[in-house]
């Protein structure tokens, strides 16, 4: 085992990149964070500059080390967690991306997805990958890049360019980039590409053929917890030689950080989007109610654990939209006081179908609506409806999970940047009629990546050692009458109907 007393985790999210350093008790020792630009070149398009992301990652690593006065010898390992599905293609020799990364929310691949869905396409992809055919996933984004970037298909065929999700991009750069960087991805990230066989945990050759994706540009698929290589590519030699020992998509990392190791364990994360994951044990469960079948995690050679997932495309990003596009508030946290200044939503409901609707509807033809507007409604009512939108969407996902698995929900463990908003958590408890529990370390995404890396190098002996680190910070209990709850839910569903069938 490496001597270091700490584990670092890079959390590369949709909105920002963070580096967090944890001690053996899973306590945060240092954190640094930096936002990157969101590019919206056309309606429905969302891009990131992968080079900017890599620069920001280097900045936050350096800053967190400086804050904690730590050097490479103090760290036992580094883990990575990332926004999922976002697609990067880069030049193997120079390390330059060939185009901006296409972000998971981007809907430009709608026509490709419809083409792939013809005939038995939807079932064919779902049976193999566990996923609903949608613009959300990486495969169609890669197809778009191959079809629309001049010369890219030829360069891919000649082995000059590499494809990866953000975990691959970071591991390759961290382990040396053009000078021998390891081109790998973990199973959780691979499970979001629409290219991996969910049972075999290998690229599906039939899918690659159908999508005409050159095999040589894909990373190798590894577990979520093993040594992929050692740091060799950070600016000024930072963390030189530290093992890069864990990677998980951010939602899987949050599940792991919440110590949801057992079948039936559940968590819900509220960041840019919101994502509910239920651990379903060592076999995938096929959803009949619009949920995705995905990986929970795979630790080294141990059998993979699977999960059912409900994905909400727009959650915290609706608060950002309220701030940046409407200028209604100056900072995201201001929405809480504004929404709390009124007793209810004044009769209005906000369905934020900016990227269509994800689970459980999967309707790319939906667009956002505010239903129930009257002259009475103020921006405070809309602020409240914005927070309620995350609560009602979560309720739809819980209903789907109960219908699929028959689980009885006793409490909901939550995390993510948006959960510092207490009113949101009260609205959630009211919408779901269960206790909502926020853990003491709310950065469970970074913590999960640190756990995966720490387990790989023996920093923690086993998952039982991690369970002891979890403890509740606060609990919110339901307060509304059942009749009112169900009435409000019916109104929400009517608003969802108004959002559907908008795009021709
Ligand atoms: N107090 C708050 N109330 C409501 N939303 C918030 C609050 N603080 C942050 N957010 C939202 O949470 C999101 C950031 O959460 P984070 O977990 O950092 O996201 P990501 O991992 O997707 O980058 C932003 O979309 C922001 O608008
Ligand atoms: O950046 P987040 O935290 O909203 O997570 C994005 C998801 O991984 C997209 O699937």
From TrEMBL:
Its EC number is 2.7.1.30. Glycerol binds at residues 84-85, 136, 250-251. Residues 7-257 form the Carbohydrate kinase FGGY N-terminal domain. Signal peptide: none annotated. It catalyses: glycerol + ATP = sn-glycerol 3-phosphate + ADP + H(+). Pathway: Polyol metabolism; glycerol degradation via glycerol kinase pathway; sn-glycerol 3-phosphate from glycerol: step 1/1. The keyword Iron-sulfur does not apply. Transmembrane segments: none annotated. It comes from the Bacteria. It is an enzyme of class 2 (transferase). ADP binds at residues 14, 18, 272, 316, 417, 421. Inhibited by fructose 1,6-bisphosphate (FBP). Key enzyme in the regulation of glycerol uptake and metabolism. Catalyzes the phosphorylation of glycerol to yield sn-glycerol 3-phosphate. This is Glycerol kinase. It comes from Leifsonella bigeumensis. The gene is glpK.
